[in-house]
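Submission sheet (multi-component)
Chains listed below:
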Amino acid sequence: MNANIEVVVVGGGYGGVTAANSLARRDGVSVTVVNPRPDFVERIRLHQLLTGSDDAVVGFGEVLGGNVRLVVDTATRIDAAECRVSLAGGGTVSYDYLVYAVGSGASDPGVPGAAEFAHWVSDIEGAERLRSALAASPASAPVTVVGAGPTGLETAAELAEAGRKVTLVCGNVLGPSLHARVRRPVARRFAKLGVTVLEGPRARVTEVTGDAVRLEDGRELPSAVTIWTAGFRVPDLAAHSGLRTDAEGRLVTDTTLTSVDDERIVAAGDAGVMPDHPFRMSCQAAVQLGPAAAATILRRIAGKKAAPVRMFFAGQCLSLGRDAGVTQFSYPNDKVNALSISGRTGAGVKEIACKFTLNKLLSGARKASSRASQGGTDDRLETPQAS
Ligand SMILES: Cc1cc2nc3c(=O)[nH]c(=O)nc-3n(C[C@H](O)[C@H](O)[C@H](O)COP(=O)(O)OP(=O)(O)OC[C@H]3O[C@@H](n4cnc5c(N)ncnc54)[C@H](O)[C@@H]3O)c2cc1C
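Outcome: structure written.
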């Protein structure tokens, strides 16, 4: 592998960073990460940002190899024919291969008033605004969390533990992604925290106003701060660039994570989809997909056939405040089973999972950096700038 190959990674989240570090370990490969912020966002800790138990950011200098170049900017278009990415700052970056890793964020539920009045915790900008809104409202003000998936459960518990008066509107059941038996310790934890849990098919929010939410069953609940957690939405960059996407806007790939339109574009993380092998949008998937995307590119550079990605899931770890949590175990294909760890031990397992994930990024950066110190290129920009 002698000729220099340029790989541009669009998006510096879990998928993008793990892909970049894997690629940067190879001689003859130069890696550029394009990301709108100068820091890596630990999205799996964003609910902790709300109460201040964690700031959910780590410097890219720690998680990216010293030989990875960082461009702080937003990609606005991928020109696949010219192998070029346009940036919001006005510049362009050219590539031989591109890793599409723009992740996901809050979805617009299309419910009247939600876009105007509801907050979200799915990205750091939303979480910071929400933290300010909470700080501006009295501690006794009613807070409504809409959606009882993992993000809703973690957010509701975190706020209730901090003393907020929380109502959790489930949309149907508490923790739909959990096994029925694992929902019980979660329900007990919410009862202990004093969270009002509204379940049932009609426990759906149909309208949000500045000081209330309306439910399908006609009830109106006072709500000083409403937090919409149901569903993630992916950026429209792929669709906007004329690449094939699914109904949710995810880049459609084959089982090697390669775009069905262009073999130089490979996806990693929430923003890609293998239609015949769907996986849950998750950090757990993204840290597997990043190195797999890198492997696809490296095999192709070496003139070899890319191999299908193999995914392995262990379960879901949920924090329910700082003092308790639930680990829901699953089969390797992500189907949940009845095994779980709850209570304080569950909180400990979740914390270990978060630290393990960050350590994976840190060790990937160290391995990439050691390649640089052994004679590879080292052209990471010290100060963020667009090229
Ligand atoms: C509160 C919360 C808790 C969670 N807890 C868990 C958990 O316990 N376990 C788990 O498995 N998952 C969890 N998740 C989900 C997990 O965070 C995501 O699935 C994961 O972050 C996806 O990784 P990614 O690399 O695909 O994308 P992201 O981490 O979203 O990173 C994408 C990056 O791309 C950047 N980007 C976007 N558009 C552009 C553009 N046009 N140009 C350049 N850059 C761009 C973004 O700014 C971002 O930095 C949680 C999510 C939230 C919100």
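Remark: Confidence is low (pLDDT under 50) at residues 376-387.
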